[in-house]
Design brief:
It holds the Pfam family Aminotran_4. With about 325 residues, the chain is an alpha+beta fold. Helices cover about 25% and strands about 25% of the residues. It folds into two domains: about 130 residues, Aminotransferase class 4, branched-chain amino acid transferase, N-terminal domain (D-amino Acid Aminotransferase, Chain A, domain 1); about 140 residues, Alpha-Beta Barrel (D-amino Acid Aminotransferase, Chain A, domain 2), CATH 3.20.10. The longest helix is centred in the N-terminal third of the chain and has 15 residues. About 45% of the residues are buried. The chain binds pyridoxal-5'-phosphate.
């Protein structure tokens, strides 16, 4: 099974004051980040742009969220936004292939047995995986979803806005059970309202009457950057969009539904449990075309979302 999954292409650790530090490919097993999931991370896509260059998509927004996740958890570090951006660009450049997925994270790299994060020192690690961009031919088929009995973590237990390693156990639980039951993924509910929150690693949109609806951030979900991209593009395309409560009844009446996430991009939903959604999804197709134009730099209004990645010979170390 694991053989069908692509291994990563690059691991790099950056010292407290930038520059490469010792290769920590073997993060100590005793690290609190390994033992307790006490780390924060981001996933950023790089694409071959229409000019033939490589560009990271919304890297600045991802790094803002990384710093916010670290702040929420009380992780102390001496990295700022500019330095993080610099390191992420360097890692993508060093990797050298245009279509990839870059994961910067702040990890406790010493083998100290503590969950008092103020006593641990965190280092920036960046992992890069190959990740071909979807084309109409290679786009994944519609996702077959179920509704998971495992709810999202309560915001009273953990702030959903923080993208922290430990919280992914909940996603893993729901995803694994869904796949074992013959589905591709699961929708998870907000633990207090019982409304739809998100899928295990993506946000959710439904479409009714040419209007988009997506769960509001009041419920327990990650404020996805791709979610924000879709909202922005929908406004630009003149489509009505509502962020608000989305409940099971809304799923019943959905004419289209789709998932959004950096790694999975935009994916239509084919069915929820035994209810098939229509095979035609004109609103999804419209948004998807605008999204592809944005990530490849052909959507003029959104070029500021792209951060160019110089070739490795242009980068000085
Ligand atoms: C739980 C969860 N929700 C939503 C998303 C989508 O977020 P983004 O669009 O920022 O990748 C992710 C992506 O990793 C996720 O893990």
């Amino acid at each position: 099974m694991a053989k069908t999954l692509p291994p990563s292409g690059l691991t790099t650790w950056r010292g407290p004051h930038t520059g490469r530090c010792q290769d920590r490919r073997g993060l100590p097993f005793g690290s609190s980040s390994v033992q307790h999931g006490t780390a924060v991370f981001e996933g950023i896509r790089a694409y071959a742009s229409c000019t033939g260059e490589t560009a990271l998509f919304r890297a600045e927004d991802h790094l803002t969220r990384l710093l916010e996740s670290a702040r929420i958890l009380g992780i102390r570090h001496d990295l700022d936004h500019a330095l993080l951006l610099d390191e992420v660009v360097r890692a993508a450049s060093e990797y050298g292939e245009p279509n990839c997925y870059v994961r910067p994270g702040l990890f406790a790299t010493d083998p100290y047995l503590s969950i008092d994060l103020g006593r641990l020192s965190f280092t920036l690690g960046i992992e890069v995986w190959p990740m071909p961009a979807h084309t109409p031919e290679t786009a994944p088929p519609g996702a077959r979803l179920t509704v998971s009995p495992w709810h999202r973590p309560s915001p009273l237990s953990f702030p959903p806005r923080a993208k922290a390693v430990g919280t992914y156990v909940t996603s893993a639980l729901a995803k694994t059970a869904a796949v074992d039951a013959g589905f591709d993924d699961a929708l998870q509910l907000d633990p207090h309202s019982g409304r739809i929150a998100e899928a295990t690693t993506s946000n959710v949109f439904i479409v009714r009457d040419w209007t988009l609806f997506t769960p509001w951030l009041t419920d327990s979900l990650l404020a996805g950057i791709t979610r924000d991209t879709v909202i922005t593009l929908a406004h630009e395309l003149g489509l009505a969009i509502h962020e608000g409560p989305v409940d099971m009844e809304d799923l019943e009446s959905a004419e289209e539904m789709f998932l959004t996430g950096t790694a999975s991009e935009l994916q239509p939903v084919a069915s929820i449990d035994d209810r098939a959604l229509p095979k035609e999804h004109p609103v999804f197709d419209m948004i998807s075309a605008a999204f592809q134009a944005a990530v490849t730099g052909t959507r003029f209004t959104r070029q500021r979302w792209l951060t160019p990645v110089p070739t490795s010979t242009q980068v000085s170390y």
